[in-house]
Design brief:
This protein is mainly β. It is about 0% helix and about 50% strand. The chain contains no helices and eleven strands. The strands form two sheets. Strands 2, 4, 5, 6, 9, 10 and 11 form a seven-stranded mixed beta sheet that branches. β7 and β8 form a beta hairpin. The chain starts with a strand and ends with a strand.
């Protein structure tokens, strides 16, 4: 069974950068697609970014376009989320998730497996 582990979170000042990683263990990722989501306290989990298995299809939430970059290295069973120009509103628990068939990447119920999350805190 595939397990997902996020890492790379931390506390940064506004304008700073972080690089999150989502590593799969147990079995290889593929073929499966991967999404990043985040959840702030007392808010719903929201879509951040998506990358298809071969990296051909990539989508971002409007709120992170131009600042975040999703990528993957299937040889390392790892998906990355490079986050630049961070804002306080980017604060939250960041989760990665995978699914074999993901027609609507923004929907949380499209994904079969979830990691436990890594905390990102951006201060003014």
């Amino acid at each position: 069974q595939v397990q997902l582990q996020e890492s790379g979170g931390g506390q940064v000042q506004a304008g700073g950068s972080l690089r999150l990683s989502c590593a799969a263990s147990g079995r290889t990722f593929g073929p499966s697609h991967t999404g990043w989501f985040r959840q702030a306290p007392e808010k719903d989990r929201e879509f951040v970014a998506f990358i298809s298995w071969k990296g051909i299809n990539i989508y971002y939430a409007d709120s992170v376009k131009g600042r975040f970059t999703i990528s993957r290295d299937n040889a390392k069973n790892t998906v990355y989320l490079q986050m630049n120009s961070l804002k306080p509103e980017d604060t939250g628990l960041y989760y990665c998730a995978t699914g074999n068939i993901v027609p609507e990447p923004q929907r949380t119920d499209e994904y079969d497996r979830w990691g436990r999350g890594t905390q990102v805190t951006v201060s003014d």
